[in-house]
Amino acid sequence: MKLLLTNAFVSRGNNKNGQTKMLAVALFVFALMVPSTGQAQPYTAAAKAVNADKKPAPPTEINYTVTEVFPLEGKFIAAVNRSRELALIGDFAGSFVDKKRKVTDFECASDGATQRLTTPLGINNHGDIVGFCHDDLGERETGFLRSKNGALIQFNAPSSTSTVAWGVNDFGEIVGQSSGTSGAFSFIRSSDGHYQNISPPTIEALVQAVAINNSLKVVGHYSDTNGRHAFLWDNGQFTELRVPGATGNSDVRQLNNNDQALMFATVDGVAAYYLYTDGSYLRINSPDGYTWQSVNALNDNGELAGFAFDDQNAFFDIIAKPSKK
Fold first, then answer.
1. Looking at the domain assignment, is residue 108 inside a domain?
2. How far apart are CA 203 and CA 146, in angstroms?
3. Which residues of 7-31 are buried (b: 16+ CB within 10 A; e: fewer)?
4. Which one of 63, 121, 131, 183 counts the least CB within 10 Å of its CB?
5. Cα–chain-centroid distance for residue 190?
6. Which of 265, 249, 255, 214 is nearest to 232 (CA)?
7. End-to-end distance of the chain based on CA atoms, in angstroms?
8. What residues contact 168, with CB distance under 8 A and at least 6 apart?
């Protein structure tokens, strides 16, 4: 089924029942990635005298300007690519949104199930989408890859009963997680269907990989006896990602081709999203007129997508770009 969204992208109507339903779905899906959601809040510091002999302090926060607004009408943004093409999560079907904002819904094959849930989680710069299918018959998940031309394949990792595809890069390499009788593991699936397991940093650790870029770098989380840790994986080497001053563990959900990662942490009692870039952690402030509720996606332009509420407490999906404000 294909739809053409025109007024829907500029309308500011507020369907409370639909919003409540979609927010519940959104929080359920992204609870798999972060234990809680929060909003970036403006940081206010006392003015300090300028010392011309010293270099300016490195930035600790980053501001954004909203470029597009989408009412929450049964769908929300799960991922965005460099061309601002979107992967949307709906009640049961997934959707692809092209640059002209035409929406194409798609669903996994039924396989005899009376109800299917098609959940997109990632999109690459070619418009290919990955995610998972869930059916009520077998109570299991299968990964899927949908090409921009509409072809959709479903797959299971070897020896698995459940497979979730979290992200895909521009070479068609997919990162995901699978579980079966031998336990749970994370994998990289090549474009020709071969699998590489991501070995944990320690024998007792459990890895959950959630995003991959063109350099075959991966971000995700691993859990061990010391708790849950965000990580950057590069050719078998794990680097822990942790926002300075964070209470508890930091979380990560996206990685772009500039090695920037979208993260979440609580610092000094304030829950906020962070951008990891060049070894620094920049707190993400809410754009003027909106307050982030969940930042779900990061693309190669540094743009963010997620859902937020405006000054009238109406919820919207938004896309925002970095600003120098």
1. yes
2. 35
3. eeeeeeeeeeebbeebbebbeebbe
4. 183
5. 21
6. 255
7. 42
8. 122, 123, 124, 128, 129, 130, 145, 174, 175, 212
> What pLDDT is attached to residue 76?
92
Among residues 247, 203, 242, 200, the alpha carbon closest in space to that of 222 is found at: 200
Q: For 200-235, what is each residue's pLDDT tens digit? A: 998 889 999 999 999 999 999 999 888 899 999 999
Q: What is the pTM of this model?
A: 0.84
Could you list the residue range(s) of the whole structural domain that residue 302 is in?
59-323
- Residue 71 CA to residue 12 CA, distance in Å, equals 6
As a whole number of angstroms, the distance between CA 216 and CA 224 comes to 24
Reduced DSSP (H G I as helix, E B as strand, rest coil) percent helix, strand, coil of the chain, to 5 = 5, 50, 45
Residue 123's CATH number? 2.120.10.30
Kindly state whether residue 49 falls inside one of the protein's structural domains. Answer: no
The token pair that represents 272 in the structure block: 């906020």
What confidence tens digit (pLDDT) does each residue in 50-70 have?
Answer: 444 566 667 799 999 999 999
Residue 308 within a domain: yes
The answer to the question of residue 54 being in a domain is: no
Quickly list H helices, the chain.
16-30
DSSP string, 75-112: -EEEEE-TT--EEEE-SS-EEEE-TT-EEEEE----TT
How many Å apart are CA 136 and CA 115, to the nearest integer? 6
Give the tokens for residue 148: 């921009």
Q: Strand locations in 110-226, DSSP E?
A: 116-123, 129-135, 140-146, 152-155, 162-168, 174-180, 183-189, 195-197, 206-212, 217-224
> CA 303 to CA 262: how far, in whole Å?
11
pLDDT above 70: percentage of residues in the chain: 79
pLDDT in tens, 256-267: 999 999 999 999
Residues 229, 249 contacting (CB under 8 angstroms) = yes
